[in-house]
Amino acid sequence: MPETENPVWKGPLAGVRVLDFTRVLAGPAASLALADLGAEVFKIEPPGTGDETRTFPPIRDGESHYYLAINRGKKSIVVDLKSEEGLALVKDLAAKCDVLVENYRPGVMDRLGLGYEPLKAINPRLIYCSISGYGQTGPLKDRPSFDIVLQAMSGALSMNGEPDGLPMKLGIPLGDLVGGINGPIGILSALYERERTGVGRHIDVSLMDGLMGMLGYIAQLAFFTGQDPQRVGSQHPNLVPYGIFPASDGSIVIACLTPAFWGKVCRSIGRPELTDDARYDTLEKRRDAREEVNAIVSAFTEKHTVEEMVEIFTRHEVPHAPILGVTEALSQPQAVAREMVVETVHETLGPIPIVNRSIKFTDADQPVPEAPPVLGQHTDAILGEVLDLSPERITALRASGVIA
Questions:
Q1: Domains and CATH numbers, the chain
Q2: pTM for the full predicted model
Q3: Residues in the chain where the model's pLDDT stays below 70
Q4: Which listed residue, of 225, 284, 367, 384, carries a Cα 20 to 30 Å from 276's Cα?
């Protein structure tokens, strides 16, 4: 519920504390979602370089574009987990947090003494989310994984690309980003359960499981036919016309998803008689006549500019889109109206643009997300405010190298 004593509504997770042991992409994407929803996220980083992505180029004034992209709204605390005092500090923090998120290989947190069982003994209400490439069980659980590896192992990569070319990975690193979807779903459901039971839970998120879950109807198609779906480029395996079509100055996407849209496509290209043509009047017939149907549509689109096609298809209510670059997509009127790009103030970079939260609430506005933290920016504040350590104690910990 919004905090009535505070006019600024942080979000529905205001008051929830998250201890964040994540790095690189899959885990930080999960804790980012929680921060966007209003949780207070304490990002634990090692001394030196911190999260590895702080070193990923391009870098401006010491700050990496990669780190900035997925760590907004978090608080950075630098602790040496190889020291006994450092471990004691994070255990004390775990006792005061609602959620812990980590994305090390299975067994790493246990070896550090920070696995679920010992932290559960400290804080039975703790919701502990482990995100890894293959999950905490199975023959591949100890194998390292990266986005393209997960796309290959899940079957997703096999379907992507042109029919006469090699398989091609997805442009968006969905193999990793699925952790930012399924991790928060598991955490939010466990928070809801905890309201009834009073105890937390260990959540095991496998990125490969997540991508397999996203196969959806593609997997069911394989079950039905007994065959692997083949690559069809930007087209759809069963729906026609669906994909990228040429324009005189570029290309445009058309998506004829349901039977009702076929007639609209026919009228938009000046061929209304094709709506009831016996050769093309069902989804199955259009699929089997894919090359003919695509040739008919292309013969019309290639004579017009993208701008003309947008006007024509908009008028006839045909699902379509121009193919926008990232910069153009982020500056288009719809993105502006939804405030998908906002300006925040970074500790060293000053005012910077960032992508805004993707989840909106109709009855309340959240403030602009706080900028991603510089390394260790909040160490003193977290130790002082959350653990009630004195300035002298914090100074001593810094002098001994436990914190930085």
A1: 17-214+352-399 (3.40.50.10540), 242-324 (3.30.1540.10)
A2: 0.91
A3: 1-7
A4: 225
